[in-house]
Write a structure and sequence with these properties.
The protein has helices at residues 23-34, 44-52, 58-70, 89-104, 129-141, 159-168, 197-220, 225-239, 260-273, 275-289, 291-294; strands spanning 2-3, 42-43, 74-79, 82-87, 116-122, 145-148, 151-154, 174-180, 298-299, 308-309. By secondary structure, it is α+β, with helices and mostly antiparallel strands. The chain has three domains: 23-103, Orthogonal Bundle (Arc Repressor Mutant, subunit A); 116-180, Alpha-Beta Plaits, CATH 3.30.70; 195-309. It has a five-stranded antiparallel beta sheet with strand order 1-8-5-7-6, covered by helices on one side. The chain has a three-stranded antiparallel beta sheet with strand order 2-4-3. A hairpin with an 8-residue loop joins strand 9 (298-299) and strand 10. Helix 2 crosses helix 10, helix 7 runs parallel beside helix 9 (260-273) and helix 8 (225-239) runs antiparallel to helix 9 (260-273). The longest helix has 24 residues, at 197-220.
Length: 313
């Protein structure tokens, strides 16, 4: 058993919680897709115009920029009357973590599951609700789910990470261990019942239904650069929610008609196919405010897991 001890790696960079489709969420996706690894600050006016493509007003766009500055994700500089925003080292670190998760999420696992579960048990006073909510969010992001209220399980070897999260929240009444689940009589509760797999499957099927028309339109070549930018950002924003919902259970714990492979294939084909026209739109907007930066726009690729320069349209 492992007792929670103070985290030794300092403050781990985290994103503030952003609602899917909100201006801050869209802006983070845009910066990750087209300004990956770049240190140069971007004109605020260009970022505001890009958000306008999504129907975001100037007021809401500038509020999103201010919020991201407040959370330490963007740094502000000025040149004459113009304001610029650049990604901070904290934002770069968080985005690298997120990219690693997205690239690996749902990929075929070369190693077969060994049947072992990571189990974490803890005690948090009911009165300390903020810590309880933060802990539940962090454990779910690691792929844990509550088999019972304070007993969380994961089929992945992440008990050490879970204990680090507990320690980071100053939860000292905690224990972690690795266990196997024997064959049990029918009335008992199997570990995988901690997840609502039926509900998750429905979400994947909804994703496929929502994005198949875009994939079909892409094949016909009927999507212009503005539309490509909006759709590519929105499909990434939508897919980015799944790693926090899906525990990535081993195949032997999933129903035979599990819809995630189809959803993942559709996401990758759509996201990659929209890349060239979408990045052309970003270059067009940036070129109006800072022509010297337009050629630095990148086109992040989930297939290669490496951003590269876009090819001029």
């Amino acid at each position: 058993m492992t007792r929670a001890t103070p985290a030794s790696d300092g403050d781990r960079p985290r994103l503030p919680r952003t609602r899917q489709g909100s201006p801050p969420s869209l802006l983070l996706t845009l910066l990750g897709d087209y300004w990956w690894g770049r240190a140069e600050p971007l004109p605020s006016a260009a970022l505001v115009e890009l958000l306008a493509d999504f129907g975001v007003s100037d007021v809401a766009a500038r509020a999103a920029l201010s919020r991201m500055v407040k959370h330490g994700l963007l740094a502000t500089t000025r040149s004459g009357r113009n304001t610029f925003h650049g990604l901070t080292p904290r934002a770069q670190a968080v985005m690298r973590q997120g990219a690693t998760t997205l690239v690996s999420f749902g990929a075929e696992d070369a190693e077969p599951w060994d049947g072992r579960w990571s189990v974490v048990a803890f005690s948090v006073p009911e009165a300390n609700r903020s810590v309880r909510e933060a802990l539940r969010t962090r454990l779910r992001w690691l792929g844990f789910a509550p088999l019972y209220d304070a007993l969380w399980v994961s089929p992945h070897p992440r008990h050490a990470e879970a204990i680090a999260e507990l320690a980071d929240l100053s939860v000292t009444a905690a224990t972690a261990f690795v266990a196997t689940a024997p064959e049990l009589p029918t009335p008992t509760v199997p570990p995988q019942s901690a997840w609502d797999l039926d509900g998750l499957a429905a979400m994947y099927r909804d994703f496929v239904a929502a994005w198949e028309p875009t994939h079909a339109a892409l094949g016909r070549g009927t999507i212009d650069p503005v539309d490509a930018l909006v759709r590519r950002t929105e499909v990434m924003d939508a897919w980015r929610a799944f790693p926090g919902l899906d525990p990535d259970l081993p195949p032997q714990l999933l129903p035979g008609d599990w819809p995630r492979p189809r959803a993942r294939e559709l996401f990758l084909d759509t996201y990659e196919g929209l890349g060239v026209p979408a990045s052309a739109r970003v270059r067009e907007v940036l070129g109006r405010y800072a022509p010297e930066l337009a050629d630095h726009v990148v086109q992040f690729s989930m297939l290669s897991a490496q951003p590269g320069p876009t090819v001029p349209a």
